[in-house]
Amino acid sequence: MPARLPGELRKLKYGAPMGESRLSAEDIRAAAEVHGELGPEYGDAVVESFLARIDQLIEARVEQRLASMITPRRRPIDPARLSKQRTAFAGALIGSVVAGAPLTLCAWVWLLDAGRGHKPLMWVWVAILAVYGLAAYRLRRR
């Protein structure tokens, strides 16, 4: 269990906490004793095995740190929520067409009486279709 840190250090945020070191003072003492007992001909082998163990521990810590830093691209989406969003989108689309068709017809007649063309209405519908197209694309990608 990690020790409690003083006030200022507790505020610092790092990735996932590092695990306890698997290399203890006893391991270091044992390696030193083996080095002393075996003599110089085995000294290099003892040191190399000790350094290899330290290297493995460092690699494990680095991998643990990197794994804690990787975040998913998107958070998972609840299928029920996605279904509700798609249903709401379909309702909004149908409502826009049902309400927009009579309003477009009225505006068309008004623009013809005023001597203007129908191009402003087409741009309004292009904008509406662009908004709904973008929303449908985003819902489909999920």
Structural features, described:
With 142 residues, the protein is an all-alpha fold. The chain folds into 2 domains: 7-69; 79-141. The protein has 5 helices and no strands. The protein has helices at residues 7-11, 25-38, 40-69, 79-113, 119-141. Helix 2 runs antiparallel to helix 3 and helix 4 packs antiparallel against helix 5 (119-141).
Outline the fold blueprint:
Elements: H1 7-11, H2 25-38, H3 40-69, H4 79-113, H5 119-141
Helix pairs in contact: 2-3, 4-5
Which characteristics define this entry?
mainly alpha, 2 domains
Structural class: mainly alpha
The biggest beta sheet reads: none
Q: N-to-C terminal Cα separation, in Å?
A: 40 Å
What number is the mean pLDDT? 77
Q: Helical proportion?
A: over 70%
Instruction: Tell me the Rg in angstroms.
Output: 34 Å
- Low-confidence parts lasting 5 or more residues at pLDDT below 50? 5-17
Number of strands: 0
H and E order: HHHHH
Shape: rod-shaped
Number of helices: 5
The portion of residues forming beta strands comes to under 5%
Tally of discrete structural domains: 2
